[in-house]
Structures
1.
Amino acid sequence: MNNNDTLKRIRYAFDYPDDKMIEIFAHSESEVSRSKLSNWMKKEEDEEFERLWDYDLALFLNGFIVEKRGRKEGPQPEAEEVLNNNIVLRKLKIALNLQANDVLDILLLSDFRMSKHELSAFFRKFGHQHYRPCKDQVLRNFLNGMQLKYRQKKTLKK
C-alpha cells in the first residue's frame, strides 16, 4: 500500500478537514501547507500529485498518536525515515488505544479473519523468530474496518 492511500483512508475514516490534518502534523512539530496536503490527496494521474514519503507519514502518525492519546512526558518519538506496514499498524494501534482483540474485531468488520497469534507476529521486533511482515492485504483490511467502525460512529452522531 502506498503512503498516500494510507493517509487518505485515515482522513476519510475520521472525517478530518484540511485544518485538522494540518493540526495533526503540527503535533509532531511539522509544518504542512494546505497546498502540499492537497497534492498528497490527489490521484496519481493528476499532474499536481505529490508522493507522500515515509518520513512525512511517520510524522503524521506520531501527531495522530498525540491527537488521540495526548502528549507524553519527556522527549517525543522521532519519526522513522523508513516505514513498513508493521510500523503503520503498530502506530494506529497505539493511537486508537487498541488491544489485540480490538484489532481483530476491526479486521472482522471487513470480513478478514486472523488468529491472535498471527496478529502478535506483526508486533514483534524485526529479527525475532516469530516476526512476520504485515502484507498490504492486512493493512488494507484494517483500514477498511477502521473506516467502517469510526466513520459509522460519526454518521450516527450527526
2.
Amino acid sequence: MADERVKEIRLPSAFEERMRRMLGEEYEAYEASFRKPRSFGLCINPSRISPEEFERIVPFEVERIPWIPGGYFYSDQVRPSRCPLYQAGVYYLQDPGAMTPAAYLPVSQDDMVLDLCAAPGGKATAVGNRLGENGFLAANDISIARCRALLRNIELAGIRNAVVTCETPSALAGRFPETFDKVVLDAPCSGEGMFRKDESLLEDWSEEKSRAMAKLQRELIELAYGMIRPGGLLLYSTCTFAPEEDEGTVGSLLKNHPEAETLPFPAVEGFVPGNSAFADGEPAVRNCVRIYPHRMRAEGQFMALIRKGGIKAGSLPEEQKGRKTTAKSGKRTDKKAVELITGFFREAGISGLSGFPPDWARLEIRDGKVYYLPAVHGSRIPEQKLQGLHFLRYGLHLGELRKNRFEPSQPLALALRRKDFTKALSFGLEDERLKRYLAGESIQTENSGESGYTLICGGGFPLGFGKQTGSQIKNKIPAGWRIMGGGDR
C-alpha cells in the first residue's frame, strides 16, 4: 500500500553524523528508509462511524494501523480526499506518525482542551471528535492563513463545541492561567522526521535552525504548562529527532517544575523510549517516545505526556462539581429570529446537533449570522476573558437570517449525525449524481418531494444542503467546499 516511486535523498553531513551517534548500529537501517516508499494514513471520526462499519463501506482498500485505534493505511494509488466519505468528515488524512500522539492523549467527554499550535488540525480534530456534550475545544494558531485551513478541518469534522483563534501563545497564556484540563503542544520544529515526505525541510535544515527551534519550544512549553489546571495533562510532540528539541525541551520543563511528572505510553512494538542522556540525565524523559521510519511504517515523531502536579487529572474543583455548563450570552436573540431558526429545523426534519438535542438558549446572532455557542460559554470561561481575542470562529455557524427566512450553512450539515435528522436524500457512494452534487451541480431525483431545503447524504452521511423543487435539487454547497480539481492525497 505505498508508492513505488522513490527519489534519492542526500542528507546534510552534520545531520548524518549526529544521527549516526544517536542510532549507532541502527543508522544503516534508518538511512535505507529513505530509499523505501513512505506510508499513507487516515483516521476515522469516531463520532460518525465505527471501525467495523468503515471497513464494510469504504470504497477503496485499507489496512488497519495496529497501534492506532481507528487508524488505517491506504495506497498512494487512490485519492481518498475525493471520496464522499472524506467530504462528509468521516475520516481525516494524516501521516501515521503524526496521528499517533493525539491517539494516546486520554480525553474525557467533559474536558476543556486547548491545542496551542493546532493548524492544520489533525490533532485538534482527533481530540475534538472524542469530546461530548459539555466538552470544549480551543484550537489556535498564530498564522491567519494556517488558521483558515484549521477552521475548515474543524468544521469538516463537525465539531460543535469549538472555537478557533489566531493569537500568540503568550496572549492566550495571559488570559487563561490554569484553565484547561488538557493542552496539546505540537511544537514548531526543524522537521527532521519529515525529510522523506517534504524535501523542502531537508533543504532548509541547519544546526542553527534546530537551536533556534529549541529556544522557541522551551518558551512555548512553559506557556502551555501554565494554562493547565493542576492535575491536568500536557501532550508535547514534534516531528523532529533533534535531542535539544525533544528530550532537552521536556527536561527543561521538568527542571523548572519539580511537581511535573511524565507519564508512560503503552508498550507498542516500534516505540523507542526517550534518552535521558539528552536531558542532563533526567530519568523521567525515558517515558517519552520516539518513532523512527526504519522501525515503524510512519514518518518521524517524538511525544511526551506530562502531568501537572496537584489534584487528580480530569477531576473538577469542588465549586464546579455538579455545575451544568450552559451558555450565557450577553446578547439577546430576538423571538422572531428564534422562530425562523426553529421553524427551519422542524421543516427540515432536524432534531439534534452532533447527537444532542439543541439548547436554543445557546443561540447568538452577529450581523445576521447565527451561531450555536459552546457549552462552557459564560461559565468556566468568563466572557470578559474573551473580549479582544481574534476569533475566526466562536461556536458552530448554523446559517444566516435573510428577509424573514433562515438559510443553513455547510458547517450545520456537517455537524449533523444520523440520529439528528429524519428527512434526507441519500445516494450511494458511487452514484454519479453524488459526484455532480459535490462538484456544485444541480441534480435530479427519481421522485418529486416537498419543496424547500433538503439534506443531501452520501451513504447516509450528511454532505450539505440542496433546495428541492419537484424532482430537481438546486445545489447549496458553497463554492469553497466543492470538489473542483484533483484534490489532496
3.
Amino acid sequence: MKSAVVFYSYDGNTRVAAKVIADRTDAGIFELEEVKKRGRSVLSFIAAGFSAALGRESALKDTFGDKLKRYDRIYIGTPVWAGKPAPAVNAFLNKAPLSGKEIILFTVQADENPQAASLKCSGIMKSKLEEKGAAVKNVMRLRGEAPGKTVKIEEMQKQLGAYF
C-alpha cells in the first residue's frame, strides 16, 4: 500500500511528527502552506486559535489533489488549536479528493494529556472524511511543545513507537 503524509505545522511540532511518520512508513510527504503566512505575534496566535474555534479554513497554495491520487493510505496531521484542526487542515479536508482512501489522523498539541485533549479535533476531522467516503483507520494523538517551541525528534520518535 502506497502512503503519503499531508500536514500543516505552525511551530514545527507537527512537521517533526510528519517527518518521523514518513520515514517509518516510506511515505511521500506534503506540507500544506497557506497563501498568507501567519504572523508570529501573540495577537496572531490568538487570531489563529479563534479562526480554528470557528471552523474556518484558510486559502492554500496547493491541496495536492492530483498527486494524492496515486496513494492508497494518507496520514493527515494538524496542530490542535482551541480543540479543533488548524484552518489549513480544514481547507484540505474540504477540498482534497479523499473518497476511497484509507486515512490515519495525527494530532499534535502541547497539552499534557494528548489522548483526551484532541478528541474533539479528531472527531471533527473523522466526520468530514467519512462524509467524503474516506475510511479513518486510526488516530495518533501526540504531544508537542508549548507554543513557540518545537519538540525534539527523539521525543516524537518515542511517542510514535507506540503506534509503529
4.
Amino acid sequence: MVIFFSALIILSILSTKISAKYGIPLLIIFIIIGIVVGSDVLNLFYFDDAVLTKRIADILLVFIIFGGGFQVSKNSFKSVAGPALTLATLGVGLTALVLGLFIHFAFKINFIHSMMIASIISSTDAAAVLMLTKQNPIKSRISTTLNVESAANDPMAILLTMTFIQIMIGEIQSPTIAALHLIWQFLGGAGVGFAVYKISVFLYDHLKSENRGNYNVLLIGVILLAYGLSELAKANGIIAVFFMGYWLGNSDFIAKRGVSNFLESISTMCNLSLFLMLGLLAFPSKFIHIWKEGVIIALIMIFIARPVAIFLCTIPFKYSIKEKLFLGWGGIKGAVPIVLATYPSAYNLDENGIVFDIIFFAVFLSCIIQGSTLGILSKIFKLAEKPLPTSPYTVELHSITKSDIDMFEIHIVEDAPSANIKIADLNLGAEALITSIVRDDKIIMPKGNVKLKSHDIIYLLAHSAEIDEINLKLNVSQTCELE
C-alpha cells in the first residue's frame, strides 16, 4: 500500500510536465490518474466512501483556500476589488439562481433541491485559474479579476450549499433564519479570521526560533485554530481561513518567505491528494446513466448561467464586451464543486450518488472545454501578454528579528532606462545593494562595471520604503518581495 501511494504521488508530480507543456489543467490529469487506478478501471484501490471523502476534503480545502487568500496581494485586490468581490459573492448567487431555475423547470426537480445542486457547481476553481493565467499571461486587469474572484468565491458557494442542505434536512425552517444564518456565517468567519491573523503575527514576531521548521509548524497550527474557532462559533471556517490568509499574506512578519515556500508545498500536496481521492471516488461506469444531464448542466453553466452573472455584475465597471466574454469563459470548475458534491451523500440526500456523478461529469467537461481553450481565446481577443522570464534561482533573506530591509526580485523590462547602464552608474543610493543578476538562466556577479540588460532579473537588498523610488529609476515591470 505504501509503494502504491508513493507511485501515485511520483506519477502525479511527473505529470505536471505534461500540464505545463500542453496547458492541460492539473485537475484533469490528477483525477484521470485516480480514475485509472480506481475501482472501475484497473481496480488497484477500491474506494467509495463519500462521508470519509468529505471529512478528509474539508481539511484539505482549509489549506488550499488559505493558500488562495495568502496569494492575493493587497495592490491586486484594490485594483479589482469591486468587480472581483461582486463576482465572488453576487456573481456566485446569480449563477446558482439561473442554473437552479433551469434545473427546476427542465428536470422537474424540487426548487430547493435544484438550488442545492446549482450552488454546488456555482464557484470557479482557484488552482485551475491561477495555473492557466500563469501559463498563459493575460492583461493584468483581466487576469487579476479572474484570480481574485476564483480565490474568493469558494466560501460563497460553500455557504449557499450548506444553507440549502440545512433547509432540506429541516435545520433551517424560514427564509429569515436562512438569511441571518448566511450573514452570520460570513461575518462571523471574517471576524474569527481577523482575530487569528492578529494572533499569528504576534506569535511569529515573538517566536525568535533558530529552527526554521518551527515557523512552518506554527503556520499549520494557526490555520487549524482559525478553522476550529469559527466552527465553535457556528461561523464558516472556510471564510475564516480565506480572510486570515489574505490579511497574513499582506502583512510583514518574521520568516514570511520561508513560510510562503512551505505553504506552496502544503497547498500542492493538498491539491494533489484531493484530486487523486476524488478520482478514486468516481465510477465512470455510472456516467452512462447521467451523461445527458451532466452535459446539459455543463453547457447551461458555461454558455448561459455564468455569462448572465458576468454581464449583470460588471454593469457598474468598465469592461469591454470581449473582456466580459473572456471573464465568462474563465469560470472553470474544479475541486470545490466536486468536494461539495459529496455533501448530499454525507447528509443522506444522495443515496444513489446521482448528484455526485452529475456534478463530477459536468466539472470534468468544464475543465476540458474551458481549461484547454482559455489561452487560445486570450489570443483571439488580443488579451494575451508576453510572459516575463522566470528565474531558476531563489535568493532568500531569513531573519528571526524584525527588519525594514527586504530582498526584492526585480524584472528589467525591454528598453528600460537602466538597460546598458553600468551598476556603478545607477545611483540607487547607499542603502540599496544588488546582490545578484540572473541572465539567460545564469547567475552573474553584480560588479560595478557590469551593465544591466533588458530581461535581466536582479535581486536587490533595500529598505521597503525606498523600493518604489528604485522601481522608477529602473523602470521595472514587476517587483516581488522576498522576505
